[in-house]
Amino acid sequence: MRVDVRALGACNRLAERGAKQAAGALSDLTGTDLAVEVTGASVASGEDLAESFAGRESIGVSVGLRGGLDGEAVLAFDAVNADALLSLLPGGQSMERSAVTEVGNIALGGFLDGWANYLGKAIDMSPPRYFEADGAAVLPDGALAGDGVFLFESRLDATTTDLDFSIYMLPDSGPFRDLIVGKTAPAVTAGGEADGGTTSTAVPYESLSTFSSLAKRGSANAADNIAMMTGLETSVDVSRLRFVPLADVPAEVGTEPHAGTVFELQGEPSGYLAILFEESSAAAVADAMLPMETDEPLGEMAQNALCELGNVMTSGFIDGWANVLGTTITHSPPEFVHDIGASTISPLVAKLSQRQDYGFVIDTAIQTEGIQARCDVYALPDERELARALDRLSES
């Protein structure tokens, strides 16, 4: 099966629209405003999903899907927020199971209405099933068994209370396959006009799974480089390949102060890579690398240390891509950044957005145990160049 990234973008827009409908339905039910934080599609293996959901305790509802779309949809929220949710619902604590089930039924129905309208076919939902689950048990059993599955994830945030929801949809093949099959689109010149040729944005599904594995391997290499240069035990918490609207990426990084390095990638695929630490983590990691204490936590010496670390991490991250894809990828000298998270990555997104609206984002969380430092790596490859490289990979 070949996946057309533009068709996948259309599906992502459907998921976003559905999430907004779900937010509206829940707002009416609970009397509190809910906003859609982000919606994205992931290509993830069972192992990736197990790691992504590790340590979570969730309460929610799942439904089976039949008709216009087959699969399963899940609404889940952190168990620690159960009291906050129940306080907003009719019946409160005394109606916990039935109240949560009703919330899930209403929210998932709203989420799926947009898909049904687009398909022109009804999507039948099985009766909602209430669950309390640890880790990836929130997802259908089959999600962890395969080499790679599509996972649509939407996060909803309550603006007036500590209450976050997530909606997950895992479509089966069949009707969903017809939505994302490969197509050929007119090539576009730098001036925005069709040049008469064609360029494919379709990539083999198996290659996406392979690239997801490459992203994971690159994350492990980057973590090893941190350990080597700081002497601190380091591990990769999460590494996932997601397909998201580029405009949503800065909001995901957030408004907390971050420091780190950004790079421009040249080759195939080109693009951008950002290595960002929360401000206190950046200072702690730099301190571990310096031979002496400094008066300025993120002064010139610390900045140089973080740039050196970023150089080594980036090389470890992309070398595996180049080897497997059969291309040459180089990177620019590191540019030190220190600002709120969204501002550090917005310029990269703005440049890439001149060529595409969506992108494959590789986001990686690297945890340094000795000082509790967290590092997030955002890789933003050029969509068309990545498609060409993955196409060659499938042929070889």
TrEMBL record:
| GO BP, one annotated term | chemotaxis
- Give a yes or no for keyword DNA damage in this entry: no
Keyword Hydrolase among record annotations: yes
Instruction: Describe the location of the CheC-like protein domain by residue ranges.
Output: 95-129, 301-337
Name of a matching Pfam family? CheC
Q: Where does the sequence pass through the membrane?
A: none
InterPro entries in the record: CheC (IPR007597), CheC-like_sf (IPR028976), CheZ_family_phosphatases (IPR050992)
Task: Report the GO molecular function annotations.
Answer: hydrolase activity
Keyword tags: Chemotaxis, Hydrolase
Q: Which PANTHER family match?
A: PROTEIN PHOSPHATASE CHEZ
Protein name in the entry: Chemotaxis protein CheC
Q: What is the lineage of its organism?
A: Archaea, Methanobacteriati, Methanobacteriota, Stenosarchaea group, Halobacteria
